[in-house]
Amino acid sequence: MAKMNSETGNELSLQQQQELLRVARESIQHGLEHRHAINVDADAYDEQLQHHGGSFVTLNKNGALRGCIGTLQPYQPLLNDVAEHARAAAFSDPRFPPLSVDEFADIVISVSVLGKPSAINFSDEEDLISQLRPLEDGLIFEEGGNRGTFLPSVWESLPEPRQFLQQLKRKAGLPVDYWSDNLKISRYTTQSFSEKA
Questions:
Q1: What are the residue ranges spanned by the domains of the chain?
Q2: pLDDT per residue as tens digits for the range 69-113
Q3: CA-to-CA distance for 78 and 45, rounded, in angstroms?
């Protein structure tokens, strides 16, 4: 399953998506067998996968979340980013125990490659809510030291914009009714794809 959006820039081909999914699975398997990160030689792969890119890797088991780790800011080749976050989603997501060997065959891996975030200008909460694009926008919520993000895929479980924003506030460590004129909200889109369940 792949969800495309032109705002992420150059879209990855089906072959490039499959390469990233394969590297993600190999990274987790390497972690299970050797207890350390896999060394990926990005130069051996397609040039587009060598460009710096931000990604999130999500693991699902029997349709339920089993781990999700990523970054909003590109700082390394996309291939390495996916390998690093696949391993982190399996073994370092604080919400879950480390993935076991017995679970490995049951997980389905999804990768979201992030487009460049852009600030949303709004006058108040109602104005912000009216500008949200369900199933399309990932959001970054920033207020002082509080920060949180939801990928566009979260709309599938929180389809109503007000509820989406409220739960994002909660994820950022603030009450659902919190509001401040100093809030910063940015949106981004993703190109998302996953293994077949």
A1: 11-114, 118-190
A2: 999 889 999 999 999 999 999 999 999 999 999 999 999 999 999
A3: 11
Q: Does the structural domain 118-190 have CATH classification 3.30.1490.150?
A: yes
Whole-number Cα distances in Å, 88 to 62, 64, 139: 20, 18, 22
pLDDT at position 39 is 85
d(CA 22, CA 69): 17
- The C-alpha atoms of residue 19 and residue 28 are separated, in whole angstroms, by 14
Q: Indicate the average pLDDT of the chain.
A: 92
Q: What are the C-alpha distances in Å from 113 to residues 75, 121, 124, 165, 176?
A: 13, 24, 30, 22, 28
Sheet of strand 190-194, all strands in order from the earlier edge strand to the far edge: 2-3, 190-194, 107-114, 55-61, 64-70
Give the tokens for residue 174: 């603030």
Q: Summarize pLDDT for 1-24 with one digit per residue, the tens.
A: 344 343 445 689 999 999 999 999
pLDDT at residue 45, rounded to an integer? 86
CATH topology of domain 11-114: Glycoprotein, Type 4 Pilin (3.30.700)
Whole-prediction pTM: 0.85
